[in-house]
Amino acid sequence: MTNNFLLEIGLEEMPAHVVTASIDQLETRVKKYLKDQQISFSSIKKFSTPRRLALLISDLSEKQPDIDEMVKGPAKKIAMDADGNWTKAAIGFTKGQGVSTDDITFKDIKGTEYVYVEKHIKGQPVQEILANLNDIIVSMNFPTMMKWGENTLQFVRPIKWLVAMLNNQVIPFSILDVTTDNISRGHRFLGKDVQFNDAKEYEEKLTEQFVIADAEKRKNLIRKQINEIVSDNNWKVSIDSDLLEEVNNLVEWPTAFYGNFDDKYLKIPEEVLVTSMKDHQRFFYVTDQNNTLLPHFISVRNGNSEYLENVIAGNEKVLTARLEDAMFFYQEDQKSSINDYVERLKKVSFHDKISTMYEKMMRVKVISDILGQQLKLTSSQLQNLNRAAEIYKFDLVSGMVGEFSELQGIMGEKYALLQKEDPEVAAAIREHYMPISATGELPDTLVGSILAVADKLDSILTFFAAGMVPSGSNDPYALRRQAIGIVRIIADQKWDIDLNKLLNKVVDVEGNEKVAPEIDQKSQIQDVVLFVNDRIKQYLNDKKVRYDISDAVIASNSSDVYYVIQSGLTLNEHKDDADFKEIIESLTRVLRLADKAKDINLPSIDAKLFENDTEKLLFNDVNDIMDGFDQSTPEVAYQRLASLKNDINNYFDETMIMSDNESLKNNRLAQLTALANLIYKLGDLNQLVVK
């Protein structure tokens, strides 16, 4: 007989954003539990809605396999007395294993004999294994947990019912006062309770009660319904995958519909309309065939088409109220100048341990100017960068951003253009937030890229200086995201920026210009560099760079972010070369010997002390590759160092480094140290794993 098992956890409505993650977690935990219990199965099908998490597991084995194993007991000298009688230790051991002393054998382990017995463990039937699933369920964790009643159990939402069926048999277990049964619940308003006679009836019987339990089927139905509406009206729609996922996890029986709003609201910036519909109301916005926004929206109801006109009217009313607010804020915001908004920022806290938002802008202006000068911006670009840094947070105190926080930066750009700011300044105001995620879109403009890096660097440095350093999974100010944003922008722009030197200069200039916060930033510079290095490692990992290569380049003598990244990519590119192993072995031999001189005050290299031609040849060739080495790319640096492979090998074949003659030894160590310093620019190649 084929065994099919159904598990359903019925809940009060879960937040949409946790539904998919929760069913994935349940599947992972149950799969691991069955594997640990040696219960085989062919497949697991997941079902999820806002009110249920369910699994249908097919072809489970009847029972655990029986196990015969040899169990080790006490040493023979403890198990038997001097007369050869079994001691209490031996008798107790065998009794505990369910056998007798007649079953004892001895096995010699490193000269000592131990008692062993063969133990037969009968596999438990699958019903007994499944009856312990309550422990797996209550061990689940969620972003937000809650308790209900006087219970101590915490779960994502209160558990209302449980279904656990092996074929047509209910598997008994309880969680709090809820006991498993073969009865589920249909749609909250359209359906009735559902009784299953067999686990395989689950999906079909729920459908009869207006519940599409298969999330993918539900999603496909929503997509189909939206496309039908769009086709009927000759519209276009971009079905955002995140929005579709969220809407899908809000409904059990989806019915798509469309509504309208007054076209007077189309005078509001499109981003405001889209945010109002998408982020606040979970509506899909529509355009004409030329991608012009239209005064219509598409939404999805959790129910059928009955009384749909009332649902449409209600949604139109709610959206209109929100758009009316947006129209008011848009008009009111334009009555104030940018300078008015900037003045208000003097009373807005960036963080109470650091400074006001206005003071943060003054620091970012310093960082931006240093970067702009270093990156050789034109005078007009520097002027625009300076202006952007002076005002870039102004929209935070606008009415629109106060109501629609998602529009920060976006409204700054809109309002800046309305007040005749240079388009480059306006774009930078929007772009300084980018990227807004680890893989988010990067700034397009040079000015925007510099402002984004400056803003993020200031946040990281000041939070570190104020003692708010991310630890473990705790990163309330998203400093890791900001650091990976810095790394990605620098890599995208191909900037040569020595982070250590930059931050030291920033702190000095901020002090001179009296804009530094009253916290010790200087002492945190090295920690900030290490923090950014961890994000470089993350960046290289995303680029499929081998872990040991990432470690090697992070440990280089360089704090130039782009150079370190390129070093990692360069070594990763060459790692499969036929001569890579030989090159690295010759270079690391230099590093290991040079390391012996780290505590010695070495002299300058004296060519007169060379005793063989290999010393002279290596000396001359190293001098040759030194020319422009510090300005070369990692690829050029690698090729130059690789060209020394034969010189190095011949040198070591002919030269005794650790000579008894102190002058010769130190001269040779000085020669190797000079070469090691070049190698360390590329990375600490000792950390490479070469086979």
Helix-strand layout with pairing:
Layout: E1 3-11, H1 16-36, E2 43-49, E3 52-60, E4 67-75, H2 76-79, H3 88-96, E5 105-109, E6 112-121, H4 126-130, H5 133-138, E7 159-166, E8 169-170, E9 174-175, E10 178-181, E11 183-185, E12 193-195, H6 202-208, H7 215-233, E13 236-237, H8 241-248, E14 254-260, H9 270-280, E15 284-287, E16 293-302, H10 308-333, H11 338-344, E17 349-351, E18 355-356, H12 357-374, H13 379-391, H14 399-403, H15 410-418, H16 423-431, H17 446-465, H18 479-493, H19 499-512, H20 525-542, H21 547-554, H22 561-574, H23 580-595, H24 613-626, H25 634-642, H26 645-654, H27 662-682
Parallel strand pairs: 7-10
Antiparallel strand pairs: 1-3, 1-7, 2-3, 4-6, 5-6, 7-8, 9-10, 11-12, 13-15, 14-16, 15-16, 17-18
What does this structure look like?
This protein has 691 residues and is α+β, with helices and mostly antiparallel strands. It has 27 helices and 18 strands. The strands form 5 sheets. Strands 1, 2, 3, 7, 8, 9 and 10 form a 7-stranded mixed beta sheet that branches. Helix 12 packs across helix 17, helix 16 packs across helix 17 and helix 20 packs parallel to helix 22.
